[in-house]
Specification:
59 residues, alpha+beta, two-stranded antiparallel sheet, 2 strands, 20% helix, binds zinc ion
Length: 59
């Protein structure tokens, strides 16, 4: 049987990775094209949350 052409197939081709802070899966974005390898968080909020956890000791 052949795959059905019912839904947008181009989403499947995009790379994905899991956010290091919240664990949600994030899909490749054009904005990340340059630094996809360095992307570890799905958003600035997660990035800051992770950083804040690290610095929480000081407070
Ligand atoms: Zn996240």
């Amino acid at each position: 049987m052949t795959t059905r052409l019912g839904f947008k197939g181009n989403k499947q081709a995009l790379p994905r990775k899991v956010c290091a802070a919240c664990g949600r899966e994030m899909v490749w974005r054009k904005a990340w094209a340059k630094n996809w390898d360095d992307v570890k968080f799905c958003s600035d909020a997660c990035r800051q949350r992770r950083a804040a956890t690290k610095e929480a000791h000081r407070a």
